[in-house]
Amino acid sequence: MTTAVKNEKVLEVKNLRTYFYTQEGELKANDNLNYYVNKGESVAVVGESACGKSVSALSIMRLIPYPPGIIVGGEVIFQGQDLLQATEAEMRHIRGNRIAMVFQEAITSLNPLLTVKRQISESLELHRNMNKNESLQETIRLLKLVGIPDAEKRANDYPFQFSGGMQQRIMIAMALSCNPSLLICDEPTTALDVTVQAQLLEIIDGLRSQFGTSVITITHNLGIVARYVDRVNVMYAGRIIETAPTEELYANPCHPYTIGLLASVPRLDVAKRKSLRMIKGLPPNLARLPGGCPFHPRCEWVMPRCRVEYPATEKVGDNHYRNCFAELSKLKKQ
Amino acid sequence: MMNDNTHLIEVENMYMYFPVTAGVFQHRVADVKAIDGISFYIKKGETLGLVGESGCGKTTTGRCILQLEEGIKGNVYFEGVNLSKLKREQMRKMRRNMQLIFQDPYGSLDPRMTSGDIVGEPIRVHGLAKGKEYTEQVEELFRMVELEPFMTARYPHEFSGGQRQRLGIARALAVRPKFIVCDEPVSALDVSIQAQIIILLEKLREEMGLTYLFIAHDLSVVRNISDRVAVMYLGKIVEITDSDELYANPLHPYTIALLSAVPIPDPKVDRTRKRIILKGDVPSPVNPPKGCRFNPRCQMAIDICREQEPQLKLVGEEHWVSCHLVKGVASPSNNQ
């Protein structure tokens, strides 16, 4: 926790606009998206499915499939360089090397025909110019680092011979193979059991404090965010609608969506049959967003203004910003 | 314990082994011991939560209670009737009383049927209503799950994930069952939708006097919805008690570790909790460890744990644990 170096931004996403052109029309997956990560900091992008959170990660990596997707505008400043202006050759050098990514389902990202050893050593030979012997040593060191028992032997196994949690560890080992400055984890533990989830989150957090890697965690799970993350960005319909340091966000949520989200999660430390609060309605279709603030059809505090105008970013506390017109005192009453 | 009329379901020494076959003649070389001797009861009108890691046998338990597997050993009583002894036709009639809600509502809805036909199918199959009465019943079911009756003409793909789960619930309710097995009904849903479905299930249980077996891996959801919770590990029940008691006073080392791994969405609380990180993965149910099945991952294991299999014993009011390190209390019902 909080090993972050103040104000040294590793990555800054500015006014990112990634649109998809589909049969349904223009789909604004990221619409003027803004967030940043400091060195050694762990931030989360939290949102429900189809809010555009994974698209933002793919945009950073310039992996948006074209067609139908295209980055329409904005900047992604990574260590002083705008990645959106980088050439494809430069990007190849950055991907997997300086920015690494861990995806939700490890098995779909691992090559089923290659041994684990081969897959990890490949990037070591490619990006770190190691010879066969060095890369093998390093592969085994990495596998041990992420807690794969009997690493020397198991390095010769194929991905299907590992359990889901072990596969995800291999993904993390691969992601770390080139000492990236930034690690993007897209729903790293979603398909896994809680016990395995806890193991992996501990590993990722341990690596961060050990190597000072910045981490962006993309998730829908407000629980895993609470413990490991310094700052939270809440995303809705392609935009960040609230951002704050983790403790501040949970103690003092200032956007109706964040308030609703926190109240609708069942908690382990709350007695049985304690009624939950719910957010009415459904998350919007990105191709048919309602005008004004896209949350207004589901909002309890909606005002006429919300239907026509998108609220500007407002500072509500130290490092705490939101996009909402509702008066803070009214939100706090409930 | 038998024929206690406050119990809707009683499961007695249930085993379910799936054969592993090999060779040209497909002979049986081993068994996946999905359920390996479990007994429990579900009271009328209550929700029993069933939790455990993937592959521990939770789903199989639900399917076995509904007699949806072949080769179940042991007895399942529904209102005192032994389901294992029923003939096929008798069981078919019995099925009206017990229904299943699936995790993946899309996979369980026929894409070529309208949602109205899907929800009404059980009514037709069991011949419960015809004509105008049938249409009215289907529309009423739609209203019960808070969908609009005009949606009956739509196809499953026209619904969102949460709405499809509502269709799955409406279909289960169509035959007015007494008992519903909910198999991970909210796991695939978004956080805001998950709360809507939990609230709906709770409302229906109260209004219709339903009894649920609620299978889930998310312990926070289970605590919220369940009266009592059973914890499964590798085909066995390791602990079963009142839901608040389980969270306040977990006794089995596996339950303790499982609970400690669940994140709480509040940094102030979560960062001060002690987290027990379990080593390794769940062992294979083909060849479970000798003695207590949890012993290779247990921090407190002693010699006896590696040799002898512990039995469920009563340790407090309606609190059963199977662990050598936990002392039982003398009770006549200790043989549960």
Q: What this model shows, in words?
A:
The complex is a heterodimer of chains A (334) and B (336). Chain A has a domain at 9-92 and 181-195 and 211-269 and 277-333: P-loop containing nucleotide triphosphate hydrolases (Rossmann fold, 3-Layer(aba) Sandwich). Helices cover 32% and strands 24% of the residues of chain A. Chain A has 12 helices and 12 strands. In chain A, α5 crosses α7 and α7 (164-176) runs parallel beside α8. The two termini of chain A are 32 Å apart. An 8-stranded mixed β-sheet of chain B has the order 6-7-8-3-9-10-12-11, sandwiched between helices. A 4-stranded antiparallel β-sheet of chain B has the order 2-1-4-5, with helices on one face. The model of chain B is unreliable at 332-336 (pLDDT under 50). The N and C termini of chain B lie close together (8 Å). The chains are: A alpha/beta (334), B alpha/beta (336). Chains A and B meet through α7, α8, α9, α10 and α11 of A and α6, α7, α8, α9 and α10 of B.
